[in-house]
Amino acid sequence: MSSDEFIKGRGAQLNVSNRFHEHSHETRDDFLNFCASEGEEPENNRTSIIETFPKTIVNKVTSPDVGMDFSLNPYQGCEHGCIYCYARNSHEYWGYSAGLDFEKKILVKKNAVALLERKLKSKNWQAKPIVLSGNTDCYQPIEKKLKITRSLLKTFLKYRHPVGMITKNALIQRDLDLLKELAQDNLVNVAISITSLQEETRRILEPRTASIKKRLETVEKLSSANVPVTVMMAPIIPSINSHEILPLVKEIADRGALGVGYTIVRLNGAIGEIFSDWIRKTMPDRADKVLHQIENIHGGSLNDSRFGTRMKGEGEFADQVKQQFAIARKLYLKDREKPKLNCKLHEDFKDGQMKLF
């Protein structure tokens, strides 16, 4: 694929139709030819920030195989642009495409902190871990300016409420002061997403994320500060990063990680079309092989929504991955375990300060 055809700095290379819309649109060749002759860009590739004011912020997670009960997402859409991201489909509910729109139209929940505070002060709320972010990254680029995630952490600390975090952005190091305070009362654990040790793989899979070097540094810094940190190697994609399991687990263990988790790639909904288009443009020599391998993992389809199998897959490849992680944990993470989050303090801090009587 020629460089002028590829949209640099983005994962998806197209906008797919929104399944909830009656009408769809396509970019025709004659329009592209006109833009080229006039020296114009056919589409604005800049990121748009859209302010929203939802009524609630804490989401009950009903999926039995996600590993969390409640999540909080200060942002919808994600500028990181990870091509495989399962959250892309959720952008269609907001009226946008799961393709380029997901990366370019970022919805910001401006009242997130106020909504969280109201939730934590509710007499009916009993403390259970709330995870930032169950859907899109709470430390994506706009967070550097808006600092909503930092304000949320201050709120969790004020009310002594347990919080989990998942990110692939080294920006989390900015908030190490708050994380250390939370960790003193066992109120936080962090999962850093690291898909590969190869920077070139990272660049094409996750174009606007922190470098692998910075992510490994983040694991080490959090661990050194006694903030419990694990790593998610997610997703495992056959013939792209599936050969890196053992070396990656060894590396993160050397940096102080307490554990490792994984999922196997699944291309549900619009992601199948987006990923297929992307891999034929970025890796044309192995596109068919990778897509067929993914199909073999999910019963002959790129799309698998079955609870219990959708995250780990089935068949020989899935079994091999499972065995490799079992070996890696035994070799490099033996006797390590992340502490259970503390849900006992919150009741005494419901009004934002400790109750004396």
UniProtKB/TrEMBL annotation:
Cross-referenced Gene3D superfamilies: 3.80.30.30
GO molecular function: iron-sulfur cluster binding; lyase activity; metal ion binding
InterPro entries xref list: Elp3/MiaA/NifB-like_rSAM (IPR006638), MJ0683-like (IPR040086), rSAM (IPR007197), rSAM_sf (IPR058240)
Domain annotation Radical SAM core: ranges: 64-301
Alphabetical list of Pfam families matching this protein: Radical_SAM
Keyword Oxidoreductase attached: no
Keyword hit for Magnesium: no
Entry keyword set: Iron, Iron-sulfur, Lyase, Metal-binding
Membrane-spanning intervals of the chain: none
The protein, known as: DNA repair photolyase
Species in which this protein is naturally found: Christiangramia echinicola
